[in-house]
Amino acid sequence: MADDRTAATPDGGTEWIRRADYQPPRYRINRVELAVDVDARTVVTSRMQIERNAGADPEAPLWLDARDLELLSIRVDDAPLAADRLVHGNGGFWVHGLPTQCLIETQCAIHPEQNTALEGFYASGPMYCTQCEAHGFSRITPFIDRPDVLARFQVRLTADATRFPVLLANGDCIERGTLDDGRHFTVWEDPFPKPCYLFAMVAGDLALVRGDYRTSEGRPIALEFYVDHGSEGLVDHAMEALRQAMRWDEECFGLHYDLDTYMVVAARAFNMGAMENKGLNIFNSSLVLASTRTATDTTFDAITSVIAHEYFHNYTGNRVTCRDWFQLSLKEGLTVFRDQRFSEDVLGASVQRIEQARALRAVQFPEDAGPTAHPVRPDAYKEVNNFYTPTVYEKGAEIVRMMHARIGESAFREGLRSYLQQHDGTAATIEDFVQALSTAAGVDLDGFLAWYGQAGTPRLAVRREWLPEQGRMRLHFNQHTPATPGQPDKQPLPIPIRMQLLDGEGEVRPLPAHPARQGDDLLLMTEATLTLDIDSDEPLLPACLMGLSAPVILQGDYSTLDLQRLAVQAGDPYVRWDALQQLHAQAHRALMADDDSLLEPLLVSLQRIAAAPPEDEAFTAMLLAPPAMSWLWEQYDTLDPQRFMAAFQSLKTAVARALCGPLSVWAQRNPIAPGRAGQRALTNVALGYLLLLQSDAVLALARRRVCDDNMTLAMAALQGLNQTATGECTLANAAFYERWRDDALVLDRWFAVQAASPHCTVEGVQQLLEHPDFDWQNPNRVRAVVASFARENLSHFHSEAGYALYADILQRLDRSNPQIAARLCRPLIGFARLAEPWSGQQRAAARALRARAASPNLQEMLDAALHD
Ligand code: TRP
Ligand code: ZN
User: Fold this and answer.
1) Per-residue pLDDT for 441 more than 80?
2) pTM above the 0.70 mark?
3) Of 278, 490, 635, 836, which sits most exposed with the smallest number of CB within 10 A?
4) Are 473 and 534 in contact (CB under 8 A)?
């Protein structure tokens, strides 16, 4: 049936929604007035000014999405709707026989206190708040729940004044007052038309922390953070990050905040990181609240980037939104790119970029190689919430970064500004964005659209050919993308290759003239192969993919000696770090076969770095740290997880022994001053290694440090101790619990380090789940135990009992919070790459879970892996 539901709005996950089926909406909603009465039964009244779009079939009924709503009444133009004009469907209803314009009034009852899915209007501790992206709004009131329907909203909230003294919604508060029954109300008007996924409201008893900001145009903005009472002292860092982000967007792109107030609410129970609702961001409290006593430096940096991310959405996402959910990366990839650039500017470019690369390779590359691999712009989905992925976010950001590299900073700024101007107040597509960049730069970027459509991580092979009699070196580049589910054949993609050529002294030789050359150190590969001839009197060493200039896997023809040279000589920090990662991977691969001969070159390189460390200690820490386990895991086609873990352990222990001298010096320092995060990072890496050797002195040092007033140091000590099975670890866990049992965010970390411990058995995980402080309704607590167990404690997760426990956990979560269940599902669908008996055991556990899975979210994830 042709209506606004097709290919646009949820249908309960029973059918595929396809990008090719997109149709513009038949109807629009120009304005909506909501009245929300929060009470034992919360009643939502909605008055929508509806208009049929020009060209739409006048016979076409209006489809309104409505999920889990108790419809109390519906009136059209102030008259009750005849029963035969209302037809119920899956996830909503049709209204027939409408004039071109009309006013529809609906009244519904909802139950936020029973909403465990944390989607729509729900209880987070004692407060009520919303999460509407992607389709939560239709769990609050009937609506055309698709992002290309933009409406002006007015919201009137009424609730008990004692229990809910704070009542917030998007935009400006235009009226407030008290009623004589102990209740009060506020009225909010948002002047900007918006899709309903950006709607938000909050009712609670919250403390307000105020800050201010003045735009470069001189306009004062009130910054308001709403947090639990008692947490007022924990918002300084987030507040300052917000100011920095506001300034940065003005300076880089001339973008000024557009309302008088910017509100941030911290929620204890939240499915993801944060949400960019217009003027009223709602955050997971773990990404707002921090002090040096309670949060690590890593958390501080995460707060900086997520605060910036949500702020930057005000333009990229809110002022210009997405035409449909297939375009999700239009806002997410672009906004991640913006928050990454911001973090590089305020936190240090080289370390930030390596961290981005590390995360991409550890999380997105595996997704792109697994059963749920999908293009940055997918072609079809059943449950859109499963597509808020590292591919859409992080790989999407890498595509924007490549286009940025191709056209340069100033054309990019120009292009982004013109994109925002042209599409202001509307819903756009990825083509619109690429077109605006192309026009501004005078460069055709259409080739990059293929990156949005093709899943899988390209392999970029580099081979050197030395031709001494001709006095030249030939470099052969060759790209190849392996098949992914549903995409057997791949095409070549444009790949920007930032590179330098090093001579025997480590000096940089210029790149030769070549049509593919775009700048001093930039090549743009556009075909499957590229050959570069370089005149030289000696063989040169290419340092490729500087700063990870493309999201590809480099397959260089490097000898161990070449890698050692790159690790020390390369000018680019990412190339140095990557060379060490390769040396780690080589050594690990050999250890898997009980061969320790490749340890030597790795250890020699690490010793050299430790002996003459770079000035930047955060960078030194990254060079010395062990590789991410999930990245190492990706280096194998089939895996025996027990062997994998044993080899990883040997690898780290060998490093600890070889570097014991300098590590001891670093580990014993006590860098507590706020500005010394780099030193803390190195101190912590050092302590982590040394604890593997379990000397009494180091165990005692760590045991003392667990009670340190600096959480970065304390947490590393606790985490390191949990890698050991010692009395000190038991004592430390008990002491830490006593100290922090009333601080939910710190206690999350306490749960996480235990579940991640290689000494925590399946029964141990079970005990954590039965701990009085465990809470199945709180996603942070659930993730702390469940995700840590599956991602880090591989030797216990990979067992029949481990898989069975994991499947039981997912089944239980699925019944209360399908989004969380689906997001935690990934470790259970990696069986294609496991050796027997693990592969068969995990597959059986996944199959059994599929038979019991209730939600389309979890079903879709399992089906992707079990489809055969
Ligand atoms: N749009 C949000 C962001 O990236 C994330 C988001 C999407 C989200 N869906 C969500 C957050 C559901 C919480 C719950 O900034
Ligand atoms: Zn986002």
Assistant:
1) yes
2) yes
3) 836
4) yes
